[in-house]
## 1
Amino acid sequence: MLEKGMKQYMNKEIEEQKEYIKKVERLNAGKSLKYTIITMGCQLNENDSEKISGMAENMGYIRTDKLENANLVIFNTCCVRENAEERLFGKVGELKNLKEKNNMIIAVGGCMMQEKNMAEKIKKSYPQVDLIFGTHTLHKLPEDIYNILENRKKIQDILDIDGEVYEGLPIVRDSKVQASITIMYGCNNFCSYCIVPYVRGRERSRRPADIIEEAKEVAKQGYKEIMLLGQNVNSYLRNEMELIKEGKLVDKDGDYKEIDSFAKLLRELDKIEGIERIRFISPHPKDFTDDVIEAIRDCDKICKFVHLPLQSGSTNMLKIMNRRYTKEDYLNLVEKMRKMIPDIKFSTDIIVGFAGETEEDFEETLDVVKKVGFEQVFMFIYSRRVGTPGDKMQNQIPEDIKHKRFDRLKKLVEEQIAEKSKEIVDTMQKVLVEGFSKGNEEMLTGRTESNKVVVFKGDENLINTIVELEIVENHLWYFVGKVV
Ligand code: SAH
Ligand code: SF4
Ligand code: F3S
């Protein structure tokens, strides 16, 4: 019999952790201990937190959303922009008094802990923290917790070298409708503003069979939508294939015989019965090969909605950012995809005010936004990250200019989205129903293929199905639909 969310195939290391899970469970038996996780990062971090939940629940902890009731508090941190730091320190500070009352274990993990100065700061200034762990040691949580409980000593468990790909960790998912599946870890791109490659290590892809197995499992559990995750999903298996070519890796078990690329993985996942929608984030424009576009075109389940991070519309800035495409490359790619898949839609990420960005550079960004017409734009003000090339550049942009540019971009995006929203009214949209609307319990809520929220009156039985709705009202951030 498998425990909650536990898989059959496992690395040796995970088998060891399973023993620790049992040991902790025995120590915790009959105590009704509670845990809570505070996740501060991207969807990859959220997926890691689901694995932390899986381990915690198998160790006998029960989930609570109330910090003051928790006996185990885990922070899963992010460091991609600077605002997360103050939030973390504030929250950890608040726990000082609660700690004794609840006999609380406080753990801080995730990307920020891979930054040496941050781990040091926590260690020095926040003695209430029992465990500091990094992105490559997440799977060792059971062993670390066991050692804390048994020996009452503080632990720092951070690895600088890349982690392996661990299979078989238990998982308790947050959503009942969309299942996130990490397909690869790390990033090799080193965009000059970005800290992720330093805290997540080099790219490592999971074996196709493991991903397919997980997708089949979530389909069996009733999930209709899967979200494939990675920092650069369209370079899935690229490293592995290069190593094989160079003779440094031997595919002795035929792991990559049938599936050796992201496009082939997509086609295989599309065949899984029960899964009705497939999404993925993030692809990199430089790696968006035709076989991936063809897979999106040919596979009914893959959403015709692609997140294509732009970062900047200026070829000059893109070069400084080390993005390895030009403004024209990006626009040509969008054009090509629109030709091959006429109803395709896009969302994007944009950074405003990176070092050296001139007024002309910024206007190039506005120009691409105008030309492409994104459904959604995630906009960020450039935040200097210690250890990245961007931080060392001399020509940093003053904060007030960054903010003014950000506001101009935001205004353009909002105008465009308001205009686009009008176009959806009176059309039919396929909506995956997530549950009751939080604002109005009598209404159901769900999302269209292009991730737009639609609320509508309907029967409870429609939850976790895809319904075709007529869109009747447009409220900028959500739409009202009608069953016809
Ligand atoms: N791997 C993904 C996204 C990683 S981080 C990709 O390449 O698209 C998510 C987003 O955060 C990035 O797309 C970028 O827009 C933003 N970002 C990364 N570093 C940043 C920084 N130093 N300052 C501001 N925004 C940043
Ligand atoms: Fe960061 Fe660039 Fe890697 Fe994305 S592709 S995680 S922006 S380095
Ligand atoms: Fe994600 Fe933040 Fe880490 S964006 S990968 S949680 S630095």
## 2
Amino acid sequence: MTDRTTGPPPVHPAWLPDAAFAPVGSRRVLVAPGPDAGPVGETVVAELRRATAAHGGALTVLAPDDTAGDRHHDLVLGVVADGTQHPEGFTRRRSGGVTTVVAGGAAGLLYGLHDVVRLGERAFGDDHAPVVEAPVAPVRMLDHWDNIDVHPVMGQVERGYAGGSIFYADGRVRDDLSRVADYARLLGSIGVNAVAINNVNVHATEARLLTDGLADVARVADVFRPHGVRTYLSVSFGSPMRLGGLATNDPLDPDVQAWWAATADRVWAAIPDFGGFVVKADSEGQPGPFAYGRDHADGANLLARAVAPHGGTVFWRAFVYNHEQDWRDRRTDRARAAYDHFAPLDGRFDDNVVLQVKYGPLDFQVREAVSPVIAAMPRTRVAVELQVTQEYTGHQKHVCYLGPLWSDVLGFPLAEDATRTVAEIASGLPGPRTPEGAELQAGGITAVSNVGDDEFWTGHPLAQANLYAYGRLAWDPSADPVALLDEWLDLTFPGADPRVRETLHAFMDGSWLTYEKYTAPLGVCFMVDPLRGHYGPNVDGYEYSKWGTYHFADRDGIGVDRTVATGTGFTGQYQAPWDAVYEDLATCPDELLLFFHHVPYQHVLKSGTTVIQHIYDTRADAVDVVESWVSRWEALRGLVDDRLHARVAERLAEQVRSATEWRDQVRTYFFRKSGVPDASGRPIY
Ligand code: GCU
């Protein structure tokens, strides 16, 4: 037993506290998991058993050959695997005072249970017509950028802001995987069904997970399986040389092909339901096919053919660009790179390759245009990659609820004359749309996780909402992100004083836009400090670096000319109408103006103000907003858990400090560059 006086604090239950199960647990429940329920069905029964025991209800578990008799139940959940339900979906109805969930399989049963938990008392209200629920994206994945060893620069979790890894300690996979089990339960409750458990930058120790470490990976997979989550590994394209002692990694070399095939055989022998591989190749120094004069289709298909006999999938990342740029070279544009590399390869990838594309053409910025690559490859399965971990959005020190950003991205009508959204492309919807008319399989939705071994999982307790919203949006990209916050609030703070909800909505609903307002303006990107891991302002932090140049500010103006007419030609990568919309200054939306155009400081925005005055005003206004949160949070003392209150208070103080630093540096920088005074008269230093 942990000694509570000296031991670590208990782990926060996130959105699954026992109290959230009271509406279900206080009722008479019947569950019929069916003959093929497996470990996921057992999880459903265990959840119901725990809930009914804690809250005074009663549970009947119906064996496949049993009948329910005439006992009355308030909630009946069962699997009907006759093909009428989506295998991961369910239908919920309320009639005659009974709530029924009919699922297509064990995973659907789990998701149906959590649907009822989320609804709480509302699930037991008036009768209503059947509600059919099924996930939009078939793969809903979280990638962990966890290292086994602690990396000297990146730490244990690359871009992790919540402590160490939940998977690894002391140079190996943890013996005690109870934290992973809690995490798996959280993921299962929001419909996430895949995890990749190690960093895409595969260092030497982690590389061995693929070979010597398989027994440990199998232990991790055992923990995820009961929650409907399949396990994947990030693997290095350089594995044949690094692990197999081969003389080459050339994808066309028969020995290399044989090595991958034998390796895949061993992986699936150890973990029969293993998902597959995530690969970062020819990207930021990782090995890849270019070294052998091969392209990315050759590289991806090499792995795809090794895993195909086992039903495995290769998630091949499109994050390929030149990170050895010369800032003097004005024609090289990192935004173009992924499209230039990948679009010509459309049609060449095997069916079990998914091209994993970051939502923007740069790198998880606060505001970017949506990546044109997502729409450029109709013959390729595409997954869109989001970043739940707050690398560029305040390191989980700042409140920044990302649901609205992801909702905008997933709902953006990028393709086919602005009729087909990013989420539809990633989900293979709305049906056969390839040029040949063939049914195109979906890729999925993926994201970089934000959890660590922190007692609140996410460093900033409110960042739990980002993980929650990610899972829910991957299930239903059309969900309203503010409504998802309500769900999260109800579950996480069950029965709380209404002021808790009111205050957290006031902070969180618009917090992404608030963050944008005190950081880089109008889609210009970066301006973050490379020496503080992308935290805090450094307006010229990347301006003269090899990683690309992003604002080109001089005394007259600011922004990156990415037009076809006079710039890098990036706008030409978009389908109609977006190519024209972004090309023309008159139609380019304000929030992306500096992503696409270089304009004078006195350029008048559609909002009616000038670019320079917008820069001055929004930074100052945003800090006022953040400052107002401090006293509002203070007023909640005693209404939420004390430790949670203290943690948020500490982070809010840092957010105010950091936002102030952003405000003052950005305002002063542009005053010094432009010489244009701030019409509002607020101080500039
Ligand atoms: C960003 C991030 C890196 C990461 C990379 C990736 O550039 O800063 O830490 O490795 O993305 O997505 O591969």
